[in-house]
Amino acid sequence: MSVFNNNFLSGKISLVTGSSRGIGREIALNLAKHGSYVFINYFKADKSAMDLKHEINQFGGNCQLLKFDVSDSNDVKASVENISKEFKKIDILVNNAGIARAALALRFKEEDFDEVMKVNVKGHFNCIKYCLPLLLRSDSPSIVNLSSVLGITGDLGNSVYSTSKSAILGLTKSIALEYASKGLRANCIAPGFIKTDMTALVSEEVSKIVLSKIPLKFQGEPIEIANCVLFLVSDAAKYITGQTISVDGGMVMK
Ligand code: NAP
């Protein structure tokens, strides 16, 4: 049961990047369940995205698939132009699309460095830049960026991913400062160890080590993050901007 009124996002238009799977999927579902019209962005997973659309339509929710590569500025620009043909505004932008590549710095390939930065940093920036004109037409515009606990703490074997996620902290604060006078809020969520395809690749041995560093002693589900997004885009958070909330079972304190 949600603590929020079921339809409190009625009339709001949301774009959630990378919402075919994992955390993004749950965020899109939760926004739609609370009345928002949701643009489901994804890159490759057509079937998963179509399944999500079907699930949303089944409970009477409204959504549309929007396939584009967040790291390609022309693709983002054209897709946002398509939104603007149908809607005059965007109220909520959730920058969730992200990839992870792990290796010690000495062995890290340059092409992997470029790919991680392109998707995780340039991808967030592209979506903010091209959505801003539509966001500024909303009476309560809100951006939520997905960083990571590793962007705060750093991590052995994850220097590039951590770097990309640290960049999101600076990006969030800068956007929050640049557009506060227009009523736009920008915040950041730093998830810990959440059950998705991304963490399914982690070996059992490493999983045990990570779990031992979580004070609450369990792995989070995507809904933990989706509920925090709901709070951040709601009026309950109307005095919060430029902040990062760790949703990680306390992992950031260890
Ligand atoms: P995931 O299960 O691997 O899903 C990633 C999503 O991003 C998919 O929907 C994927 O779309 C999309 N995507 C990837 N590259 C894209 C691109 N170039 N353009 C558009 N969409 C793209 O990942 P997740 O675990 O849900 O993670 C979501 C976010 O949370 C990421 O930013 C991640 O860094 C962050 N995070 C996750 C955890 C965790 O424990 N899971 C912890 C900290 C932070 P396709 O399916 O179409 O490829």
UniProtKB/TrEMBL annotation:
GO BP: monocarboxylic acid metabolic process
Domain of life: Bacteria
Database matches in PANTHER family: 3-OXOACYL-(ACYL-CARRIER-PROTEIN) REDUCTASE, 3-OXOACYL-[ACYL-CARRIER-PROTEIN] REDUCTASE FABG
Coiled coil: none
Name of this chain's protein: 3-oxoacyl-[acyl-carrier-protein] reductase
Keywords: Plasmid
Keyword Transferase appears in the UniProt entry: no
A Pfam family it matches: adh_short_C2
UniProt cross-references to Gene3D superfamilies, sorted A to Z: NAD(P)-binding Rossmann-like Domain
Family: Belongs to the short-chain dehydrogenases/reductases (SDR) family.
InterPro entries attached to this UniProt entry: NAD(P)-bd_dom_sf, Sc_DH/Rdtase_CS, SDR, SDR_fam
